[in-house]
Amino acid sequence: MITAMLAGMGGDVCATTYTNESIQAKQSELAGAKEQVKDLKSGLTDIQRVKDELESTKSDLNAYITQLDAQLTDITLKIDEYNRLIENKEAEIEQARLDLEEAERVQQDQYESMKKRIKFMYESGDNMYLDMLFGAGNFSDMISKADYIEMLSAYDRRKLNEYIETTEYVNACKEEFEAEKEVLDAAKAAVETEQANVNELMEAKEQEVNSVSAEISDKEAQIKEYEAYINEMNAEIKALEKAIAEEIAALEEANRRQYNGGMFAWPCPAYTRISDDYGNRIHPILGVEKFHNGIDLAAPYGSSILAAYDGDVVAADYSSSMGNYVMISHGSGLYTIYMHASALYVSKGQSVSKGQTIAAVGSTGRSTGNHLHFSVRQNGSYVSPWGYLK
After folding, report:
1. Are 304 and 357 in contact (CB under 8 A)?
2. Which of 59, 109, 124, 240 is the most buried (most CB within 10 A)?
3. Is the pTM of the predicted complex or chain greater than 0.70?
């Protein structure tokens, strides 16, 4: 009976209700969002401090490049972390928006229900409860009706309290929604700042490398310096190959990977141009003919580097000449090498598949611009990558 009567008076509202626990949960999320904004602002790279620290290593170019590349790696990791935060925060903002919409809908339903109830009470007049009591047939009936009136009053108080709590919850949802947007904006601003820091460090590196080259006025000395750099890089590769060959020799024949002759995937899908091709060419600075052992693919900073073919990662490391690099064995004495990366996503001993992302384009090591240096080695010697690429 009471349910039917309450429904007739507008008491049948949405079953969703919000409690102090719901409000506290939103307030906790709000506090967390504010803390995230504070952490984002305090975690930005102090680029002036970094440049001051680098100043002391300029006398040793390799040491300077190594330290600067380490800073670039740290900043790149921050950028990746911020981008993940942006992705997560966009999803959280969408959920906060849905929570707010639902809370506002419940609030409106409760408001409309209360208006109907107040209208009913007004139209019924002050005598409604007295008429109910004096219309009782006996004392027992009067007690029952008095209890019923008390139930109605308690119901009205409860509905009013629910409306008040829903209003508080709506306000908490609005505050949380705005706070999450502030986190998102701060994260996007942090990415822009850190990317600017990356650009600033790369520009400083380019100037320093070019400055060192300019200081070597004698062409013969320049040539020797360049050859020493190439020999250093080749020595690292040959040492790796020797160690790998010894490891392979220790394995059973059945476990050896064999290259099946398939064509390679293009290792840098975001490349914009080939800045330097494989083979003998006139060196742009030295003005003499030199051998270039791979192809340079100019591409945006942070863009994907892919494994050209199925294989095993035999090196994923850093050197001052190659920067961050990956070396993959494809079996049958065939290797691919990927140099100057800004970040490495694989590690030694890991098996990779053709087309899998293994690193990101950068300008680490002896490099003055974002690109991928891609080399292929067969049985201990460099060969043209074009014989394997699609």
Report:
1. yes
2. 240
3. no
